[in-house]
Design goal:
19 strands, binds manganese (II) ion, about 25% strand, about 30% helix, single chain, alpha+beta
């Protein structure tokens, strides 16, 4: 069944009349047309009969026609009311409650006489959760480019270089490999600075015998990677070294448990168990990982509260960490595809 056919089925199952998709990433996922509309109205309407209509600013119409999307198009000028160009009434409309603004909600109510709204969020998340082979091909490439970024960054390390300089160097160099955008702000943190799991790279200078944490990813053919490597520059302290090996073991053991049918919560339990056993449980303050795809963080959580089962085609991150103030911050993160029989690590930078 195509994605649109599955959504039409959902409209019928929920006894609704139509779906109004407003998140540009979901619109791209469903149409193959990508746009950042800013404050302008941009939405895909799918009726229970399966009719698709894309509302776009007039200035985007030619690009829509050149895209894979083949449904109806309503282009509007900045001075026009886009809703007035579509004559319909919907009693029940499915919307993305995590995205639609209150302003748009009110506009839809007025324009289409909507009596009740219902959420389509979970259905869209579930659709995006399992990747097609084309999506996996893009994600494999995105992960390999992230590996390359770590290699570039590691080779640039020297005493006195700043975190910000390493970030700039990585981002400039990876552009020569066809990357135009990182999937989030590149993170390079030195020594004790890495003990803040979401620190900001700055003017901190690299010294001998400390760890360097790289957390980065690229967007390749619309798909994101997100990996972390922590590398030793010289010989960090014995405790820092010990922490590194605990994190590495926690990550490896959790990854090896990945196969269809295993609860996501089980992966978190395995990694957390190893870290707790070693006495560092309180220094691992975040979930084990998250879904990855068109967005760097997407459905679903790899946490102890998510008991959903792994399915072939899902891509998740596994990223345990231990952050001890004034000692060390270590995180290791890989992008893992769930396969029919187990897993494939899309990222392969050395550990
Ligand atoms: Mn990351
Ligand atoms: Mn991550």
């Amino acid at each position: 069944m195509t994605k649109i056919a599955q959504l039409v089925q959902t409209i019928q199952d929920k006894q609704a009349d139509a779906i109004w998709v407003s998140n540009p990433i979901n619109i791209f996922y469903l149409t193959g047309f990508k746009s950042e509309p800013h404050e302008r109205l941009f939405a895909l309407l799918i009726t229970k009969e399966g009719q698709q209509t894309l509302f776009v600013p007039q200035l985007d119409v030619e690009e829509v026609k050149a895209s894979p999307y083949d449904g109806d198009i309503i282009g509007y000028l900045d001075t026009e009311n886009p809703y007035a160009k579509y004559d319909a009434k919907f009693d029940t409309l499915l919307i993305e409650e995590s995205h639609l603004t209150v302003q748009r909600y009110n506009e839809l109510q007025t324009a289409f006489g909507v009596q009740s709204f219902n959420s389509i969020d979970l259905t869209l998340k579930q659709l995006r959760n399992v990747k097609t082979s084309d999506e996996i091909t893009a994600m494999r490439q995105a992960a390999q480019l992230a590996d390359k970024c770590v290699e570039i960054g590691t080779a640039f390390l020297k005493v006195g270089v700043t975190e910000r300089e390493v970030v700039n160097h990585i981002e400039n160099e990876i552009k020569k490999h066809g990357v135009s955008e990182m999937s989030f702000d590149t993170m390079v943190l030195f020594g004790d600075h890495a003990a803040a799991p979401h620190g900001t790279p700055g003017e901190r200078k690299l010294q001998n015998d400390e760890y360097v944490l790289f957390d980065l990813g690229v967007i390749y053919d619309y798909y994101c990677s997100d990996i972390t490597r922590t590398v030793a520059f010289g010989n960090p302290s014995k405790e820092a070294h010990n922490i590194y090996h605990i994190v590495k073991q926690a990550e490896q053991t959790a990854i090896e448990a990945i196969k269809p049918g295993v609860p996501l919560s089980e992966l978190d339990r395995i990694a957390r168990g190893i870290i707790e056993e070693a006495g560092y449980g309180e220094y691992f303050p975040h979930r084990l990982g998250h879904g990855l795809g068109l967005e760097a963080h997407e459905y679903q959580d790899v946490s102890h509260t998510n008991h959903n089962l792994l399915e072939a085609g899902m891509v998740i991150t596994i990223e345990p960490g231990i952050y001890v103030p004034n000692v060390a911050g270590v995180r290791i993160e890989d992008d893992i595809l769930v396969t029919e029989n187990g897993y494939e690590s899309l990222s392969n930078a050395p550990k």
